[in-house]
Q: What sequence folds into this?
C-alpha cells in the first residue's frame, strides 16, 4: 500500500525530475498485520509452576499445523494463574489458518475444548452488534413427510419408480411392466440444469440449478428444500439421509472462509460447516465418507492422518497416521479401517479401529509386506471386508503368473479373524453380493479374455464356486436381492451375461450395443441397461430386462442422458424375518395374485379403450379428409388427374373362347 | 415374407418409386442411373442414363414419362417405354428434388443452395405433346434462405410444401406465389415429407429422430412418432393403419461410432397409437427411401449400400390389423374390406 502511495506522490511531481530517496529504496516496513497469530480460548488455567509445561504441550500439539516462531506461544497471566488464553505466532499465515481449521473445537482434555480464532478476526468480533434484535418468528408450517411416497398404492404393491432424462425433459415413471410399458407420472422440461440424483433412501430427488440445489419428494413432488450453494456440481448424502454434502468449485478460495464443500442438515436446511476444496490432484468425490447411522464423517488430511467429525456436534477427533493412504467405514458398525503403505523397512498395515466420541480404539491390525496400495470392499451388511492388496511391482518375482492377493476380515466374529487368498492376473472388478456371503471378481490380462470367478465365504475358508472363462466383460452388477448378477462389458460392445449364483448357471447372454450403464430395480426383478448421450451419441436410450435376461421394454431417444431407479429405504426386516416370509410365500400368493389379476384386467381394459379412442380419432380425421377429397372430384377432372380407378384404365378385353357344347356321333348309312 | 433383393447399383439409392398401378418400380441411384424393374418378380426392364448423381425422380400418372433431377444440374425427361431421353433443361446448380403436379401439367424442380446460388423452387410447364420444347419456365417461388431437401405439391396443387434444412416446413401458395406458412417443429433438418393416400395427411421425417403427422388442411399435428434414430424417409400404408420409417445414423458418423445392423432397421409404427409394432432388418447402411405400392400389398426400401428390397406382404399381414376405412361410415366395428380401391 505504501508503495502505491509513493507512486502517486511521485507522479504529481513528475516535472521536477529530482529522484527522491524513496525511489531507490522501499521504506522499511513494520509488519503490523496479525494474520500469523491465533488466539486460543479455553486453555486450562495453571499457576506459574506448570506454566512452562503447558506451553510445551500446546507447542507440541499445535506445531503439526506449521512452524511456530521460537517462543511463539504466549500465555498471559492473570494474577498468579494464567488467564486461560494462549496466543500463538506462526511463521506463516497459512499455518495460522490451518490451525484454526484443525484445532477449533479440539478436545484438549475432558474439560477443555479449544476455541481457536485468528487474531485478525478480533476486529470483526469487536464490532459485533451487541444490541439484541427481536427475531421475527415465522408461522409454523407442517413439513411434508419424506416417506409419503411409500404409501402410494403402487409403491405399496412394490412397483418402483425411475427417473429418465432426455433432451430437456425429465420424466418420472412407474415401472408397470406387467402392462408392457412404464406409466409416466410426471414429465417436466427444464427441471434441472445438469442432472438429477436420488438420495440414498429414495426420499429426495435432487435437481441442480445455478444458485444451488433443490430437493423434491413427498407424495406430490413438492419442493422439500432449497439449498443455496452457488455453482454446485456434486452432491453426496449420508447413509440415512440426515445430512448432505455439496461441492461447488470456487477459484482462489479464501481458506478462512471456505465455500467449496458444504455440509448440510437436510431436515432443518441448516448449513453446518464449510470446508475448503482440496487441491485438484487430491480431489475425489465423495470428499467425505460417512460412517454407519450418520454418526461420523471423515476425510484424509494428507500428511497428517484422518480428520473425523462427529455429525451431531461437529467435534473433531483426529486420527493421527501421517502416511495413511486409504480408509473406509463399516456400513453397520462405527468401525474405521485404514491402510498405511509399506516403506523401505516397514510393512504396510491395515488397521481396524472403533471410533466413538470418547476416542479411537484399535481393534486389530495386520501387517502386509510390500503393500503399496489397497482397495477396500465392504459387504453391505458389514459382515466382511475384503481388502485387495497392490504390491510393489519392482519386488515381484519374475516369470511367475502375476497374481493379486486379498485379505478377508470377518468383522462380526470375535477377534476379527483374517485370511489371505490369491487370485491370478490383475483384477478388473470386484463386487460383494448384497447381504450375502458371495463375491464376484473379474480378472484377466486382456479385455477380450477375462475370467469371472465367484467365491463364497465358508465357515473357515473362502472357496471358489465357479469360474467363467474367456469372457468379454468388465463390470459386475449384483441384484440388490442377491443371487442374480448381471455381468456387462460397459462402454464397449455391450455384452451382457445374466447369471444365477444359486444354481451357478447362465440364464442368458444378450447385447446392448455401446451400453454405458446398468441399474438394478430395487426389487431385483428388473434391470436396466442404458446408453447415455454423455458418452455415446448414437442410439441412446434404455432397455429394461427381467432378472433372467428377457427384454421387456426398449426405448430409443435422441439425446437421452440419464436413467436412475428410485432407491428404497433400507429393509426394516432382518434376513431371518424375510426368510420366514419367503417360506410362507404360498399363503400370500393366492391373495396377491387375485388382486393383481383384477387390477391388470382393469388396466388392460382401460388401455384398450384408450387405443380404440385413438383409432376412432384418427379415422375421424381420415374420413373427414376423404369426404372432402371425394367432393373435389370435379376439380381433379379439370386438372387432368386420374382417379384411383380411372376410366382411362378401363378397357374391354375381347377373348375368343371356343367351347365344345356337344359331341354327336352320327353313323352315316353305308351305301350299299 | 421373403424380400426380393435388387442388386444393381453400386452407389447409394436416393429414391425408390412405384408407378400408379404399382407394377413398375423405379430406382434412382447416385451411380448416375435410374433402373426400372417389375414389382412382381424383381426382373429388370432397363436403365435410364443421366450424367450426374440422380437425387430425385418422378413418373407421370400414365407411366409414359420419367423426370429426373440430377447432380449435373439438369432436369431430364425420359420416355419410359423406349428408355430414350427426350429433353433436358439446364439449371445453375445441383437439382435436389423434382415432382409432377397432379394432372402432370407442371413440374417443380428444387435447386441447391451452393456456389452463391439461393435455394429455390422452380415451376415449369410440361407439354408432353410438344416435340420441340416440352418444358417452359413458368415462375419461381421466393427462396427460404436455406437448403431445401424436398418439395412436394399439396392437395389440388394449391400449395407447395418444402422440407428445409433448418428444421422447418415451408408452405407456399401457388396462386399468390408467396410463403404462407412456416411450421417449425424439428430441431434438425426435415429430410422428407410423405403424403397419405389422397393427400389427406402428411408426415415430416427429421434427422432429430422424430416424425410428425399433420392434417394437410389445418396443419394441425395429429401424431408424433419418436423413434430415437435419424429418420430419412417414411412410407404410409394406404390400406392398414401402419407407417414405415427408414433411416439410421448417416454414413459419415457411422465411421466414428459403433453401430450394428439393427441401427438400419426399417420400422413399422401404428399410425393411430404411435407405438412401434415391428421392424425389418436387411440393410447394412442408412435407408434413404421407403415406399408402398398404391395397393398397399408391397413395399420397397433402398439404402446407402445400394441395395433395394421389394417385400410382398404375406397373407397373415392382411389379417393382422383392421383395414383403414376411408368411407365415412359411422359403424367402426363393421369395417372389413369395405374401403375403395
A:
Amino acid at each position: 500500500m505504501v508503495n502505491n502511495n509513493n507512486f502517486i506522490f511521485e507522479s504529481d511531481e513528475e516535472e521536477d525530475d529530482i529522484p527522491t530517496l524513496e525511489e531507490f529504496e522501499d521504506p522499511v516496513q513494520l509488519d503490523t498485520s496479525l494474520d500469523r497469530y491465533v488466539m486460543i480460548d479455553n486453555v486450562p488455567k495453571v499457576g506459574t509452576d506448570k506454566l512452562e509445561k503447558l506451553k510445551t504441550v500446546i507447542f507440541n500439539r499445535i506445531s503439526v499445523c506449521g512452524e511456530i516462531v521460537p517462543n511463539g506461544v504466549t500465555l498471559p497471566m492473570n494474577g498468579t494463574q494464567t488467564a486461560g488464553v494462549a496466543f500463538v505466532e506462526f511463521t506463516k499465515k497459512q499455518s495460522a489458518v490451518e490451525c484454526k481449521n484443525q484445532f477449533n473445537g479440539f478436545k484438549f482434555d475432558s474439560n477443555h475444548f479449544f476455541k481457536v480464532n485468528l487474531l485478525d478476526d478480533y476486529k470483526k468480533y469487536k464490532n459485533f452488534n451487541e444490541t439484541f434484535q427481536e427475531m421475527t418468528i415465522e408461522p409454523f408450517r407442517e413439513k411434508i413427510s419424506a416417506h409419503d411416497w411409500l404409501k402410494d398404492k403402487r409403491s405399496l404393491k412394490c412397483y418402483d419408480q425411475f427417473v429418465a432424462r432426455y433432451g430437456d425433459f425429465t420424466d418420472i415413471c412407474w415401472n408397470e411392466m406387467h402392462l408392457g410399458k412404464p406409466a409416466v407420472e410426471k414429465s417436466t422440461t427444464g427441471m434441472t440444469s445438469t442432472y438429477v440424483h436420488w438420495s440414498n433412501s429414495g426420499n429426495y430427488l435432487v435437481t441442480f440449478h445455478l444458485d444451488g440445489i433443490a430437493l423434491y419428494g413427498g407424495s406430490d413432488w413438492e419442493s422439500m428444500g432449497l439449498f443455496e450453494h452457488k455453482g454446485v456440481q456434486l452432491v453426496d448424502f449420508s447413509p440415512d439421509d440426515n445430512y448432505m454434502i455439496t461441492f461447488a468449485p470456487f477459484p482462489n478460495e479464501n481458506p478462512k472462509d471456505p465455500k467449496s464443500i458444504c455440509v448440510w442438515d437436510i431436515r432443518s436446511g441448516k448449513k453446518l460447516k464449510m470446508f475448503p476444496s482440496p487441491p485438484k490432484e487430491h480431489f475425489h468425490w465423495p470428499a467425505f465418507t460417512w460412517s454407519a447411522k450418520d454418526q461420523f464423517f471423515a476425510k484424509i488430511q494428507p500428511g497428517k492422518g484422518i480428520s473425523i467429525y462427529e455429525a451431531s456436534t461437529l467435534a473433531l477427533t483426529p486420527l493421527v497416521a501421517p502416511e495413511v493412504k486409504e480408509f473406509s467405514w463399516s456400513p453397520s458398525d462405527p468401525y474405521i479401517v485404514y491402510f498405511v503403505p509399506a516403506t523401505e523397512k516397514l510393512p504396510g498395515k491395515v488397521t481396524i479401529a472403533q471410533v466413538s466420541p470418547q476416542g479411537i480404539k484399535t481393534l486389530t491390525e495386520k501387517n502386509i509386506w510390500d503393500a503399496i496400495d489397497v482397495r477396500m470392499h465392504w459387504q453391505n451388511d458389514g459382515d466382511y471386508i475384503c481388502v485387495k492388496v497392490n504390491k510393489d511391482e519392482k519386488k515381484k518375482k519374475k516369470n511367475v503368473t502375476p497374481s493379486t492377493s486379498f485379505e478377508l476380515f470377518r468383522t462380526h466374529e470375535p477377534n476379527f479373524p483374517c485370511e489371505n487368498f490369491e487370485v491370478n492376473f490383475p483384477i478388473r472388478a470386484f463386487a460383494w453380493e448384497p447381504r450375502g456371503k458371495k463375491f464376484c471378481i473379474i480378472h484377466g490380462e486382456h479385455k477380450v479374455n477375462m475370467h469371472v470367478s465367484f467365491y463364497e465365504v465358508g465357515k473357515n475358508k473362502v472357496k471358489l464356486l465357479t469360474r467363467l472363462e474367456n469372457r468379454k466383460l468388465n463390470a459386475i452388477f449384483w441384484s440388490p436381492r442377491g443371487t442374480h448378477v448381471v455381468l456387462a462389458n460397459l462402454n464397449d460392445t455391450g455384452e451382457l451375461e445374466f447369471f444365477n449364483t444359486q444354481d451357478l448357471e447362465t440364464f442368458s447372454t444378450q447385447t446392448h450395443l455401446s451400453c454405458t450403464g446398468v441399474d438394478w430395480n430395487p426389487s431385483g426383478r428388473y434391470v436396466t441397461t442404458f446408453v447415455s448421450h454423455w458418452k455415446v451419441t448414437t442410439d441412446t436410450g434404455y432397455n429394461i430386462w427381467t432378472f433372467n435376461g428377457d427384454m421387456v421394454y426398449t426405448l430409443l431417444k435422441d439425446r437421452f442422458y440419464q436413467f436412475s431407479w428410485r432407491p428404497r429405504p433400507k429393509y426394516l426386516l432382518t434376513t431371518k424375518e424375510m426368510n420366514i416370509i419367503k417360506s410362507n410365500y404360498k399363503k400370500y400368493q393366492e391373495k396377491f395374485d387375485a388382486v393383481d389379476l383384477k387390477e391388470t384386467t382393469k388396466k388392460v381394459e382401460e388401455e384398450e379403450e384408450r387405443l380404440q379412442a385413438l383409432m376412432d380419432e384418427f379415422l375421424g380425421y381420415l374420413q373427414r379428409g376423404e369426404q372432402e377429397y371425394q367432393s373435389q372430384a370435379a376439380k381433379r377432372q379439370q386438372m387432368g388427374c386420374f382417379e384411383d380407378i380411372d376410366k382411362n384404365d378401363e378397357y374391354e378385353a375381347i377373348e375368343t373362347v371356343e367351347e365344345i357344347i356337344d359331341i354327336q356321333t352320327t353313323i352315316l348309312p353305308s351305301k350299299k | 415374407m421373403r424380400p426380393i433383393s435388387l442388386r444393381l447399383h453400386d452407389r447409394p439409392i436416393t429414391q425408390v418409386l412405384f408407378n400408379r398401378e404399382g407394377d413398375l418400380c423405379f430406382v434412382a441411384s447416385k451411380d448416375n442411373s435410374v433402373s426400372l424393374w417389375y414389382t412382381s418378380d424383381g426382373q429388370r426392364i432397363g436403365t435410364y442414363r443421366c450424367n450426374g448423381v440422380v437425387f430425385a425422380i418422378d413418373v407421370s400418372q400414365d407411366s409414359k414419362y420419367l423426370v429426373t433431377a440430377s447432380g449435373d444440374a439438369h432436369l431430364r425427361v425420359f420416355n419410359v417405354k423406349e428408355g430414350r431421353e427426350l429433353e433436358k433443361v439446364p439449371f445453375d446448380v445441383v437439382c435436389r428434388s423434382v415432382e409432377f403436379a397432379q394432372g402432370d401439367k407442371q413440374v417443380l424442380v428444387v435447386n441447391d443452395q451452393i456456389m452463391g446460388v439461393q435455394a429455390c423452387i422452380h415451376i415449369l410447364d410440361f407439354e408432353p405433346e410438344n416435340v420441340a420444347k416440352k418444358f417452359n419456365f413458368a415462375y419461381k417461388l421466393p427462396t427460404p434462405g436455406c437448403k431445401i431437401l424436398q418439395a412436394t405439391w399439396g392437395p389440388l396443387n394449391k400449395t407447395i410444401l418444402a422440407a428445409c434444412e433448418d428444421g422447418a416446413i415451408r408452405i407456399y401458395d401457388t396462386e399468390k406465389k408467396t410463403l404462407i406458412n412456416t411450421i417449425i417443429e424439428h430441431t434438425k433438418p426435415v429430410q422428407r415429407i410423405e403424403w397419405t393416400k389422397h393427400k389427406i395427411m402428411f408426415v415430416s421425417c427429421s434427422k432429430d429422430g422424430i416424425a410428425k403427422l399433420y392434417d394437410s388442411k389445418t396443419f394441425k399435428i395429429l401424431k408424433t412418432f419418436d423413434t430415437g434414430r435419424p429418420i430419412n424417409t417414411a412410407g404410409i400404408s394406404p390400406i392398414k393403419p401402419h407407417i414405415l420409417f427408414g433411416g439410421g445414423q448417416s454414413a459419415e458418423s457411422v465411421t466414428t461410432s459403433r453401430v450394428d445392423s439393427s441401427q438400419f432397421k426399417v420400422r413399422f409404427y401404428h399410425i393411430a397409437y404411435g407405438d412401434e409394432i415391428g421392424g425389418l432388418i436387411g440393410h447394412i447402411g442408412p435407408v434413404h427411401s421407403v415406399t408402398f405400392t398404391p395397393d398397399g400389398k408391397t413395399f420397397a426400401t433402398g439404402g446407402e449400400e445400394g441395395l433395394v428390397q421389394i417385400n410382398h406382404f404375406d397373407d397373415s399381414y392382411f389379417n393382422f390389423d383392421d383395414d383403414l376405412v376411408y368411407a365415412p361410415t359411422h359403424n367402426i366395428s363393421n369395417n372389413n374390406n369395405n374401403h375403395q380401391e
Notes: Helices of chain B lie at 251-254, 315-318.
